[in-house]
Input
Amino acid sequence: MKKAGFIVYLKLMKKLFKRFFMVSGILFLFLILLSFTDYPYLTLHWLGTSQCKPVQSPEYIVVMGAGGLPGAESLLRCYYAAVMADSFPESKIIIAFPVGEGAFAGSENESMVSELLNRGIASDRIQCETKGTNTYSQAKEIVSIINNKEASLLIVSSPEHIFRCIKTFRKQGFTNVNGLPAFEQPTNDEVFYTTDDKKNIIKRTERNVMLRYNMWSYLQYEILVFRELAAIGYYKVKGYI
Output
């Protein structure tokens, strides 16, 4: 009886694994096909812009931390923050990034401050929020720093993060919250084609920009979007947004 039960168990597990790999294969194929469309970018763009409005003289520019410098996300956020700081010289800047106890010089937070200083931003305009460890706790800490929920905020972060940032800060009581998504500047596809490539209506596989670059970028966008949608769902369940 025990042997018969074990055989039944093995058959059941085999069936479950077969279904699992079948579903996984279908999902993988779907994601590959999706990467040949504009939907990954359009969804990323929606997350970055749907809650935003034209920027008008923010009192505070809040730069959300994104790992160490040099790093693509942190550099982009610092770049956009510096541009806004130049455009609105009366604005103060808050860098939100945690610093652990006994953090050494050159920590991520200090590196972001140095990047802004290198871009010509005066040190007396910059302050740091170092206690928050996620978007929700950072928003709570910034409430204490600003102590004025009617102050106008401009949040600088990666495109996929802007939607959740704005919703979280509004949930904390801020009534005038705007966002600035730190999009990368697109490159003209024409620079990747030779003169001979441009003559061909149908590009050779090894010279097709979609296969060489765009598809892989869109697959990365899919990861960013799905991860952020999961985070938004979690924040919604927790009541953070």
Remarks:
- The chain has a mean pLDDT of 86.
- Helices lie at 2-34, 39-49, 72-87, 108-118, 135-146, 159-171, 195-199, 209-238.
